[in-house]
Amino acid sequence: MAEHLVCCGGLNSSCPHALHLALNGPLANVVLSIEDIERRLLTEVSDELLDLLDIAAYLYAADGAVQRGSEIDRRFGSSWRRPIRFMIPVRKPELWSSDSVRSALVEILNFLADRNHYFEFHKLAAQPPTSRYFTFGSNSASFAPDEIILFSGGLDSFAGAVTSLVGQRSRVALVSHRSVNTIGAAQSALVRELRRCVTASQLLHIQVHAHLRKGLAKEYTQRTRSFLFAAIGFVTARLFGIDRISFFENGVVSLNLPPVAQVVGARATRTTHPHALHGFRQLFSAILNSDFSVTNPFMWLTKAEVIGRAVDHGFVELLRDTRSCSRVMEMTIQHPHCGSCSQCIDRRFGMLAARVGEADPTEAYRFDLFNGARPKVSDKEMALSYVRMANSISGMTDTAFFTAYGELSRAVNFMDERPDVAAQKTFDLFQRHAAGVCRVVDSEIRLRASEIRSGSLPWDCLLALITAQSAGHLSYAAPASHSAPVSDNANPRIRIALDEQTKTVILEGLGELTGVSSELIQSLVRAFRRAREGEVAPENYPYVKTSELLKQFGLADEETLRKRVHRCRKAIAAMVSEAGGNEIDEQTVIESLPWHGYRLNPDVVQIVALSAIRR
Fold first, then answer.
1. What residues have CB less than 8 Å from 534, skipping those under 6 apart?
2. Which pLDDT score is estimated for 263?
3. How much is the pLDDT for 183?
């Protein structure tokens, strides 16, 4: 299998397809900024720590710049697991080339990213200033933390911060990675509220901003993001003379059994998996040549139990301000959670199982957990499989459980307890989780009994899918009686034609689009037609880049374009609703993918001649 080659820091190769990344100099295209570090602390930054920052930044950047294949890749392997080789200049090549450090580095990265990594370390010719990463602040001048906590702004890391700050009265440095501004703002807001409840000497917040220069980012999965996160936590700990860092994540998510076949390998997050924590410990200890600890204090808690920790300390009102959604590029003020990714589903079930559902507004989710229509097949399967797995586990013996989920038998070998003790605690953990999910589902069925009986729920909402599955009638195709012009991804159901004379776009049986909405659709149709004429597989139909659309329409900024797309999507959704169809989401007709742009959904849209359209 051909490998990707990434040349870093000005190194070159004869390979014509090599990716070139640089943190410094005129060709710099990778940014890493660590905020609010006191200048005096930088005297403690050793060469190996600076090298680790370089390596972590290049890994994160390459993960975003190298596309790993379509989301609908059914081979689960070739594109996702393509090997990657790095050429990196470092200050201490003898350390990074040593067997202990190199093997530990490769081990953790191969596990996190589910691909083989290879490294060539070269001597760094010109050393940039030590301070080049750091934005100086004054808050850390006299701060002496007891703990370094990796703080994402999600439910679990927030509950962990509360437990340490309020429950244990510890002095804590929270280290956050701000991937997009919306996440950074949410993290900062939570920290401001925490500061109201603790003394000034208890809390320091260090934010890290890492990104690629515009135009380089192609891949949004970025499984080495957690490596960057842990590496910066490790460097921060060493600046303060501490030999440990903590992730806070409930054990069910940490062990992360895939609920559907599509969530496998590199698609499944592995940040706090016991194997990953063991790998971080091995690498950081090898770099220091002394023991370093990486822990997850919430390993044996379910999501509901984690939420209970925050509630017990009086922080129930702030739960709504945490962020769990994996689709960060799609977040809006109205809908900070999509409601369809596995993280959102897990969050909402956890809230309901902890009996604090009212503290987590349903309006914050684009799709309501039980009653919201789910047009996409993948979203239906994700939600239903979550329930199906909990229902199955609730009736299992421990032998049947470990037989069904053999990967857990390997995971227990990386836990601190004896394997037999860890196995029993793992089984008990999933039994409690499954019981909570089943209790929530049973309660919802009782609450909606009349709507289930009358058939008035959307046919593709989770509750309807659960009852259809129980009756043996589950199908992801729309019922014959369903007259909506749009179904899920099985066959194209919206036929579109262009009227060149009037400059309008005709949607068969729905209506017409004019003005800027018509211009947008026409532009996307051109790319759609080229892909169809080239016999491109539907899942590989190209996106029209945002920069290209800005140029076509003479727009100066992306926000104006996003508003145009939103208005067009809203107009189409209104047409569908008026025609008697189910609610459609914003990706049903016009799909968007972070860093790629926009396209017409090839699973839903069909372009036909104007003469073939019934107005």
1. none
2. 47
3. 81
